Amino acid sequence: MSGFVSFVSSGPGDPELLTLKAVDRLGRADAVLFDDLASGPILSRAREGADMIGVGKRAGRSSPKQDHVSRLLVDYGKSGARVVRLKSGDCGLFGRLEEEIMALREAGIGYEIIPGVTSATAAAAAAGIPLTRRLTARRVQFVTGHDVTGALPDDLNLAALADPAATTVIFMGKRTFATLADRLVGAGLAETTPALLAESVSTPAEKLTRGTLGSMAALIAAEAEDGPALILLGPLAEGA
């Protein structure tokens, strides 16, 4: 007997941003394995009596190892359970989706991927700006601000990230932004490039802090909260 795993994107935190398909799968799940950032009121959509297992990873905190999370998915799948793997934002963005899919494939367990609202689009909406604009922001690029060690990745394409006609969204970048900003300025991006720090987007703790490439590191050090955050750089970050 084999179960089935639904990789469900929970969006940035507001349960009203869940898709209808996400709500349906949560309501029928026998087990829900959820990330820290996909918890809170969103879990109230789960079926009463479902097993609820927190498997979230947060920088600087004790977290389950990835192989343990993958093993839980396989074990539940082999038991015949309907499983929801609940991931924050869109599960295809910086969510270690590939490792978990590979584990299910090797075990012969079926799965589906349910897309959702990424925090990047939610942050732009909260700030009242688009992510693109004809002629001045023709390209959007998403990048992670840290690697598996927590440091700034050393293989970033700085030429692309320093493109003044692109909107750049940096996920998980608060701790490494000062270093990244120095490298971007060295690659030719102006210190006056608008920047937006978006924290706890779509939740009651939402906070937006505006600055520039040159000032944002100091603003993060002085004003940033402990919640999840991303940083937008580019011609639209200052507002429409």
List keywords for this structure.
10 strands; Cobalt-precorrin-4 Transmethylase, domain 1; Methyltransferase, Cobalt-precorrin-4 Transmethylase, Domain 2; 27% helix; 2 domains; 7 helices; five-stranded mixed sheet; alpha/beta; 240 residues; elongated; five-stranded parallel sheet
Describe the fold and architecture.
- The chain has 240 residues and is of the alpha/beta class.
- The protein has 2 domains: 4-114, Cobalt-precorrin-4 Transmethylase, domain 1; 119-233, Tetrapyrrole methylase, C-terminal domain (Methyltransferase, Cobalt-precorrin-4 Transmethylase, Domain 2, 2-Layer Sandwich), CATH 3.30.950.10.
- It is 27% helix and 22% strand.
- The chain is built from 7 helices and 10 strands.
- It has helices spanning 20-28, 66-78, 97-107, 119-127, 158-161, 177-186, 216-223, and strands at residues 4-9, 31-34, 51-54, 82-87, 110-114, 139-144, 166-171, 194-199, 207-212, 229-233.
- The strands form 2 sheets. A 5-stranded parallel β-sheet has the order 3-2-4-1-5, sandwiched between helices. Strands 6-7-10-8-9 form a 5-stranded mixed β-sheet, with helices on both faces.
- Strand 6 (139-144), helix 5 and strand 7 form a beta-alpha-beta unit.
- It is elongated.
- It starts with a strand and ends in a 7-residue tail after the last strand.
- The relative contact order is 0.16.
